[in-house]
Specification:
four-stranded antiparallel sheet; six-stranded mixed sheet; mainly beta; 115 residues; 10 strands; globular
Amino acid sequence: VQLVESGGGLVEPGGSLRLSCAASGFTFSTYYMSWVRQAPGKEREEVASISTDGIPTYGDSVKGRFTVTISKDNATNTVYLQMNSLKPEDTAVYYCSLGIGVAGIRGQGTQVTVS
C-alpha cells in the first residue's frame, strides 16, 4: 500500500487548497478512503471520508462549514480534498488514510498552514 499526498502549503485565511492523494498497491475502488489531520499538540481527527460508492461523510470539525469537499477518481486511484474558506484552526498535517477512522494506513502527510 502506498499513499502519497500533495497540495499542501501556506495560505492566508479565507484561501483555498486542493489536496490530492495518489494511491497504489491495493484495489482502490473497493475501499473507503479518508482524510485525517493532526495539529501540533492535538489528537488526530478525521476530516472526511468517502465510500466505495462516492458518498462523502464529514467530521465534526468541518461539518456544517460547507467548504470542504472530498471526492475520488477511481480511474486514476486518486482521492481529493477541496478546502475553501480556510481558517487558522485548519492548520495541521493532512494525511490520506485507507479506510475510515484515524487508525488506518496513512501516507506521509502534507502540511497545511493557514496564516
